[in-house]
Here is the input.
Amino acid sequence: MASPFEKVQAGPVLATVRRLEERIEARFPGRGLHRVVGELASLVETVASSTATVRGRRSWLRPVSRAGIALILVLTGAVLVLAVRSAAVDAPDTGLDWIPLLESTVNDLVFAALAIWFLYSVPERLQRESLLELLHRLRSLAHIVDMHQLTKDPERLRSSFTPTAASVAMDLDTDELEHYLDYCSELLSLIGKTAALCAEESRDAVVLDTVSTVETLTVSLERKIWQKIAVLNHTRAAAPES
Here is the structure.
């Protein structure tokens, strides 16, 4: 029996996203960040349903493709046997007369190899398109989260900060800003976990590479957020006690 800890499960990821959605709504009702986490929850559900659909389709498509490969091997073998027999009976008189026969044999082998490769990769390529589309949406969502936290600069909470006419208004106090940045960090982490769900259902090199790219992106953006939280904590510690 497979252990539930052997791979990332869609259910716990979705439950964590829904819980984060409730926490954001409770602390920052009406903010755009709440809509972002709602979109992430929808993406988790889409990943779960999409992979289940493709998994069911692949369960019958894979045996069919393997049967097609076996048929091609049998036909190719039969053609080669007939060609060898024909060559043995009607052997060409000179070496040059063998060239068309050899050329035809090589072409048959090449076409057979291409057909085998096509049939073998059909199940993975069928799944690749849908997974890459979902991963593209996750990557876009990670950048949207980054846009939400981009103007949340803890430097503006310092008493020495002098705003300009172009400065974006800061409508969060120190504690609210820390919670906001923490929620953004959690959102990015969950985007990475959702990307990992795609990797659980595919061994396609293109899909796995894209998953790795999304995970690297979310970790990099999280690091920027935690640098802001560190600055915020330093600002809080340096502030004179009232």
About this structure: The helical segments are 10-27, 32-89, 98-150, 174-200, 205-238. The CA atoms of residues 131 and 198 lie 6 Å apart.
